[in-house]
Amino acid sequence: MIFQMNPKVPIVLLKSKFLDQCVSMKELRRKLRRLRKSLSRPVRHKKGKKLLYQCQKAGVFRSAKHIAIFTPNDGEVETKNIINFLTRQGHSVYFPILVGEKLKFAKVGQHFQKNRFGIDEPLFTPLIGAHAMNLILMPLVGFDKHKNRMGMGGGFYDKTLAFKTQQNKFNKPKLFALAFNCQEVDQLDAKPWDVPVDGIITPTRFIR
Question: Tens of pLDDT along 8-52?
């Protein structure tokens, strides 16, 4: 949300409103992170299978040779079933690599190292830009029915994919966010720097 200056409203009050919203967003993010981390391992495994089914049903892998996906961290939705399926079907699968404040992508191989957040990153494979991906499946902390997405707060995907908002000619990569149903909220305010996703996929729903 953008606050515009109003000469009739004291600056202190405007700052207070902005700070209150920042605090409420941080608290919402904390609550949603706790909620997704509370799911048991058997439940995660079961929902991971259903998530793959929803992706297949929606045809999101169709005509996508180069597909970026993530390994779950901090309670994120399970992606192992999707990764195994894509590998068996001959797709080229990539994981994100943190480079400064943006992401590159590296093809999944046999060797990995942990980044500063403790997330596995492929070793010994070339780094590729987001432009080269046909499809990117990304995590989220929260979402709403309008496909607004709340991330962890670092803005890595938004910074990496900013080119998608600058010119309409960029049809790829297609962007889909993966989540548990429990991560849905009533409404999220889209920020000017947010990069819209093409859809949000849960174990039971596909929001276009």
Answer: 434 333 344 433 455 588 899 999 999 999 999 999 999 999 999
CA distance between the termini of the chain: 23
CA distance 131 to 164: 9
Strands 112-114 and 120-122, bridge-based pairing: antiparallel
CATH classification (class only), 11-207? alpha beta
pTM of the model: 0.86
Cβ atoms within 10 Å of 165's Cβ, excluding its own:
14
Q: Where are the domains of the chain?
A: 11-207
Runs of H (alpha helix) within the chain:
11-37, 41-58, 80-88, 156-160, 163-166
